[in-house]
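Supplementary notes for students who missed Thursday's class. We covered one full example, reproduced here. Read the sequence, then the structure, then the short commentary at the end.
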Amino acid sequence: MRSNQLMCVAVFSTGFTAAAFVTPMSTVGTAKSITRIGSTMKSSALEAIDGIPTIAETKCEAGGSILDEAAMLASQNFPISPETLIEKAKAALIKDSGVLDATLWAENFQFCAPYVGPLSKAEFLNAADGFGIYEAFPDFDNRYFGFRADPIEPGRVWFMTRLRCTNSGAGMFGKKEPSNKTVVLPPQMYSFLFDQDGLIQELTVGYPVDRRQGTTGGLGGMFGVFYGIGQALPFPEGKPYRLSRRFRLFTWLGRLAGKLTKKNEE
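Structure (token representation):
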């Protein structure tokens, strides 16, 4: 897709939205209108974890328990060990989460981000048509860390990323010159869900865990990258989160009520 077409696509094609939230995957295929934004589709794996018994290491005085992760992982009876799952996750990342080697994905593979998906394998490969992201950001580095096997959901590996990149290569969205701006995204949570054959059944990306960090106003994924170089996408999801007027009103009323209550008690 030519760079001078991208802004029009951003406004009119949901396919752009899908590709824009991948952080990023390699160029494969052509972006199409394939997203199902706001989909309520549920993962069969998530449905399967209901009723998992809690094995606590320590019971908190209030609010829950600290899990005995080793005992819970052992109780899953999953055919692949947590250590091997983590190794598989790292191997997949070396292959751009499987975009460079789709044999790592199960037939029922799904991609899901906060505003995009779930997408099937074919849909994701089409949506993974980048916009020359690696050319635009030569130092693009997701900086993955914190790999953990989920003690509740069998086969799930969670990990985090702190993306840093500089638009020092090609310009974006029809601009001839790069912005030369450095973007730092907030820390984000990603995950792979592996099936019992060790294939990737789900890939989730772009979930910020602390919106106060970074230079993108709390935005994750490519939405955050575009915003960080001063080229935010033209819809609310492509801009930093803002509290609604109604929420701000309720917050103000709550604070006022608290002050009045405290005054009456005095």
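Commentary. Residues 26 and 99 are 6 Å apart (CA to CA). The chain has nine helices and ten strands. If anything here is unclear, bring it to office hours.
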